[in-house]
Write a structure and sequence with these properties.
Organism: Williamsia marianensis
Keywords: Oxidoreductase
Strand content: 5-15%
Structural class: alpha/beta
Radius of gyration: 17 Å
Order of helices and strands: EHEHEHEHEHEHHE
Shape: globular
Largest sheet: 7 strands, parallel
Pfam families: adh_short
Strand order of the largest sheet: 3-2-1-4-5-6-7
Protein name: SDR family oxidoreductase
Helix content: 40-55%
InterPro entries: KR_dom, NAD(P)-bd_dom_sf, Sc_DH/Rdtase_CS, SDR_fam
Number of helices: 7
Length: 225
């Protein structure tokens, strides 16, 4: 079977993508070492944990060295940040950009030979914040606008690869609950996309026949369940 590497696979959207890809792919499940990551791997046949700190350049280089061919790379790992520009110090910009953008760029760079060997597919899980920047979202939006640019450039520079950016609206996850709490709002799960809904769109893009190249997928919640 083809092989897929999914970062941020221990919970939320990453875990949903892993479950839906498991029937057709051997999986490398990326994430920090945790019981959650181990449990997902145990649930899925052909899945192997890939416990790597994405912001550690040496660790990342060592972990990718043995991957000689890779059919699918899903960049799902990310962190959130919320606050005004006035209240956001430089260290927070560095933290968010390091995880959401720089780590994705470096992982892609290291895996380009393996992706080229398989004529592979790179999927960047972006956000509505990667298309429209709103008050309070400066740092996060900057990281996601950068991720969109990264995807566009990889697509242009690597004609043998397919590169897809997924732009979902807000998703009903633990991370979303943290964000709503930061904003001081009341959490209403019905206003957000289900993780499996977004995962289905990701997997559909991956399964798109080879004669088509899905560049971008935009999903917005309807408020209906």
């Amino acid at each position: 079977m083809p092989t897929a590497l999914i970062t941020g696979a221990s919970r939320g959207l990453g875990a949903s993508i892993a479950r839906l890809l498991a029937p057709t792919h051997d999986l490398l499940l990326g994430g920090r070492p945790s019981t959650e990551l181990d449990n997902i791997a145990l649930q899925l046949d052909g899945a192997t944990t890939w416990p790597v700190e994405l912001t550690d350049a040496d660790e990342l280089a060592a972990a990718t060295e043995a991957i000689s061919e890779l059919d699918v790379l899903v960049h799902n790992a990310g962190v959130i940040s919320w606050g005004s520009i006035e209240d956001t110090p430089a260290d927070e910009w560095r933290r968010v950009l390091e995880v959401n953008l720089i780590a994705a760029a470096e992982l892609t760079r290291l895996l380009l030979p393996a992706l080229r060997a398989a004529r592979g597919h790179v999927v960047f899980i972006n956000s509505g914040a990667g298309r429209h920047a709103n008050p309070g979202w400066g740092v996060y939006a900057a990281s996601k606008f950068g991720l969109r640019a990264l995807a566009d450039v990889v697509r242009a520079e690597e004609p043998s690869l397919r590169v897809t950016s997924i732009f979902p609206g807000r998703i009903d996850t633990d991370m979303q609950q943290e964000l709503v709490a930061m904003e001081g709002g009341e959490y209403d799960a019905t206003q957000f996309l289900l993780p499996d809904t977004v995962a289905s769109a990701v997997v559909a893009a991956i399964h798109t026949p080879a004669d088509a190249h899905p560049h971008e997928v935009v999903l917005k919640p309807t408020g209906r369940r």
